[in-house]
Amino acid sequence: MNIKKFTGLALVMALSLGLTACGGNKPADDAKEETKTEDQAKKDEGKDEKKSDGKAKKIAVLLYNGSDTYIASVRQQLEKLDKDDDSIELVFQDGQNNQGTQTDQLNNIIAQGVDGIFMNIVDISAAPTAMETIKASGIPTAFFNRDMTESMKEDDLKDFIFIGTDAPEAGKMQGQILTDLWKKGDMDRNKNGVLDYVMLNGGLDNPEAQARTEFSVKTLKDNGIKVNEVAFQDAKWDTDKAKTAMDTWLQTNQDNIDAVIANNDGMAIGAISALQAVGMNTGSSKDNMVVVGVDATDLAVAEIDKGTMSGTVKQDAEGMAKALIDTMKNRLANNDFIKGTDYKLGADKKSIRIDYQIYTGK
Question: Where do the record's region annotations for Disordered lie (predicted)?
Answer without folding.
Answer: 24-51
